[in-house]
Structure formats: structure tokens, C-alpha cells
Amino acid sequence: MPRLLSLLPLCGLALTGCAGDYAIDSNLDRSEFEQYFAPSQVQLLSPETPIGNAEVLGLVEGISCQQRPQDVPANDADARTEMRLEAGKLGANAVRLHQCIPLEEQPGCTSARACYGKALKLESQDD
Predict the structure, then answer these.
(1) What is the pLDDT of residue 22?
(2) Do the domain assignments include residue 15?
(3) Is 18 or 118 the better-scoring residue by pLDDT?
(4) What is the pLDDT of residue 127?
(5) How many domains does the chain have?
(6) What's the pLDDT tens digit per position in 79-120?
């Protein structure tokens, strides 16, 4: 028992060595944090979705670009996200997808996809 008690301070010292003031690095920039989540504030609607009395704020485009052969190929999901970001900049809360197409000649891209749609301001359900 006394031998076990003599090991206790040694264990405590070892555990306090793990404690410290560690910084965490992240690829999220605090000044851009709101913009990082901005596309999630814009609802994506299919071409068949009725828009009722929604206000059309303008046409928007999103482009996905594969810059190098080893990069992720251009895809519709990234192009739709860019389109939603552009719609949000116009003050839209929804975007109605028109179509996504491959782009043959996009400068600086090995492959590219573009999505087009209408930025909309839908009436709130609370009104």
C-alpha cells in the first residue's frame, strides 16, 4: 500500500504534462464564418416546384471547376452550391434550378460544370 501511494504523485505529474494551452488551427476564417454557411440559407427548388407569388430577383449561375487532373472532377453539387451562394448575395431565400450542363471551354479548368437558375424571394410561411 505505501508503495502504491508513492506512485500517486508521479502519476499526477505525468497527467499534468498533458494539460496545456493548445491552439487549434482551422481552415475556417472567423471573418468569413457567416459566408461559409450562407448557401444553407438558400433553399434549392427543382424545376417543377411551383413558385407561386415569389419575387424573381434575377438569374444566377454557379460553376464547378477542376483545375488540375489530380483534383476532384467538376460536379453539379459544387456548381449548385455556388449558385445558391450567388442567389444569397441577391437577398434570395430560394433558387429554382433550371439546368446543369458541362462547359467545354472554361479557361483554367480541366473540366467544368455550370448550373443555372432563378434567385427567388419566397413569401414567409409566418405571414
Answers:
(1) 61
(2) no
(3) 118
(4) 46
(5) 1
(6) 999 999 999 999 999 999 999 999 998 899 999 999 999 999
pLDDT tens-digit series, residues 24-52: 666 666 655 555 555 668 999 999 998 88
6 within a domain of the structure (yes/no): no
Rounded CA-CA distance 88/107 in Å is 26
Domain harbouring 95, CATH code: 3.30.110.70
Strand, helix or coil at 87?
helix
Residue 20 domain flag = no
* CA torsion through residues 41, 42, 45, 50, sign: positive
- Taking the C-alpha atoms of residue 114 and residue 78, their distance in angstroms, rounded to an integer, is 9
What is the three-class DSSP state of 20?
coil
* C-beta of residue 100 within 8 angstroms of C-beta of residue 76: yes
Neighbours of 78 (CB within 10 A): 18
For residue 89, the enclosing domain spans: 29-121
CA–CA dist 35, 12 (Å, integer):
45
Task: Note whether residue 17 is domain-resident.
Answer: no
Chain centroid, CA 21 distance in Å: 30
In 10 A of CB 80, how many CB atoms?
20
C-alpha cell at 6: 508513492
